[in-house]
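Subject: sequence -> structure tokens, single chain

Hey, anyone have a minute? Need the predicted structure for the following. Not urgent.
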Amino acid sequence: MLTALRGGHWPSLIGAWLHFEVSFMTWLLIGALGVSIAEEFALSPAQKGLLVAVPLLGGALLRVAVGFLSDRFGAKRTGLALLVGELIAVIMGWLGAVGYGQILAVGLLLGAAGASFAVALPIASRAYPPAHQGLAMGVAASANSGTVLAMLCAPRLAELVGWRGVFGTMIVPILLALILFAALVRNDTVTLSRIECREDCWAPMRELLRRPSIYWLCFVYAVTFGGFVGFCSVLPIFLHDQYGLNPVAAGSATALCGLIGSVIRPLGGYVADRKGGLGVLRVTFLLIAGFVAAVGALPVVSWALLLFVLAVAGMGFGNGAVFQVVSDRFPKQIGMASGLIGAAGGLGGFLLPVWLGSLKEATGSFQPGLWLFAVLAGGAAVSVTEVMKRQRTTVQP
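Reply:
Had a minute. Here:
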């Protein structure tokens, strides 16, 4: 793996990783502070779910546009603009979030941080040759370990400076990331020329949307990444409401899940490079479905935590495998493909907390929401099997 990492422009990979790391911390900040915010505003279960889901929706909405801009103007320029947008969002959260509606607006603006995905992955992909892109993109995307820092640090800081003060402290790491990103990442070649854009700016997107595999990849990534980011956002509230854990303990448990799910992502890309992404995904989805279904039985807290760690680890592993398939099928449109598929992942992450909170309010239990996700993961495994069958049929004479 070290030899493979030295085979490309590793400073750009570091810059991409740092951009995504700090952005992921910022993106999940409301999820990490969700218990404190919900207590201050006396929120219902459905309102709690919407609270932690709105930043994920903002990221989903922006990722397609950011993917296009990365291909049009270059990922480095686009990445710098996103970090400036993140600064504006955390300053508003620090100084202006005095009601539920206002914190929802801040959450929507934090979508700029979630759109970092459509910058970091194209930079990593273009910095390495095709043989090592699964690993390189897995390393860049492992920066969703920003979840760990957010979940560990934010609840503890909130006890000292209040949850609004935590937004203010995020100004420092965002500024540092902006400086280092500008210094480390090489200037990328713009893949969509001005002449092409004047003639038909949306032609590449239409061409991408004519490929049926893009829709399937959106679905499977909505399960792997949507599950990862959705559970990491809502898990502090789930552990507090279901098992009575305090914000610091719930944040620490979520950080453990986020850590395992993040560090295993490069391994998923590495294994997919060698064994094939489709076979890896089929097994991974079956494991995810089983683990989440077991959590849906609402066992004692120790078993629930173990099962969540295993489930989120499977999601992180699957994230790496999905993008090995993406880089293989869309090598010339990786920015747009990353943006579109990443948007689907963010949308999946948005829907998960919303339906968990809404079904909890309607039924009085988290079981229906958890089992619904398990069914979707099982459906993803079936879809991978069908794709593999069609692929074998196409290859055979």
